[in-house]
Design a protein that fits this description.
alpha+beta, elongated
């Protein structure tokens, strides 16, 4: 299973509304009316705030006493602005782009500080290539590697789904495994199975393994002849359990 983790940052700001404004008078003595807001960001590898473009919309599940207890915001940074006198726990549901599912984040609305933030790590399981491309804008994704140019054995892939190809290089492959059949078998795999292959390669590659993840094109390139023998055997067993080679 491929898993990509990202950190979501919630920024809450609040301030007391002047008691001079009688329209904003609190019904509870000792609990002044406040204006508060929540914004949602992602954090990149450097811990910097960036737009949470991995979400297409966000729904806030507020206290049922609000006139609209489930407001939905569709533009970053998904700012919610409200007024009230009480603190409460809420649920924030973030809907991932590319039909990538939803993530529920708990949030404690409190008035201890004028500004405070909360960080939550969320996990995207088996993201499709289109979602991986968007996730790559905020951090690493499985299969990332430096672009080492057009080295021997660079794989080829189709635009519809990730595929893996191989060409002969100077390094000899595993003699116990037919490398041509392995390459053919990899191209027969379904998209979800290919994503698992990408994860296996990423987790078990050697220092001299040639891989290139072209997220922009939704392609993953690998030279099978630069993989360690243990990984080749692992891939062979996986491929032969999925398709006939």
């Amino acid at each position: 299973m491929i898993e990509v983790k990202r950190t979501v940052k919630l920024v809450t700001e609040q301030t007391v509304i002047s008691s001079v404004d009688s329209a904003k008078h609190s019904p509870m003595e000792g609990f002044p009316m406040r204006s508060w807001s929540i914004k949602i960001y992602l954090l990149n590898e450097q811990g910097e705030e960036i737009p949470a473009t991995i979400f297409e919309k966000v729904t806030y599940k507020l206290h049922p006493t609000f006139s609209n207890p489930t407001p939905t915001i569709k533009t970053t940074p998904f700012t919610l602005r409200e007024e009230g006198w009480g603190e409460f726990d809420m649920e924030i549901v973030c809907y991932t782009v590319e039909k990538g599912g939803e993530h529920s984040i708990p949030h404690d609305l409190n008035f201890q500080k004028e500004t405070y933030d909360a960080k939550h790590v969320i996990t995207f399981k088996n993201p499709k290539p289109a979602l991986l491309k968007i996730l790559a804008e905020s951090g690493p994704v499985p299969g990332d590697a430096p672009d080492v140019g057009n080295g021997a054995g660079a794989g080829a892939s189709a635009s519809a789904k990730r595929t893996v190809d191989s060409h002969k290089s100077k390094k000899k492959g595993n003699k116990a495994i037919d490398m041509d059949k392995l390459a053919d078998g990899l191209q027969k795999l379904q998209e979800d199975d290919l994503l698992q292959v990408v994860q296996m390669v990423h987790d078990n590659k050697a220092p001299d393994t040639y891989i290139k993840n072209d997220v922009e094109q939704g392609e993953f390139h690998v030279d099978l002849y630069t993989l360690p023998d243990a990984l080749i055997k692992m891939l062979w067993e996986y491929v032969t359990s999925k398709v006939e080679v």
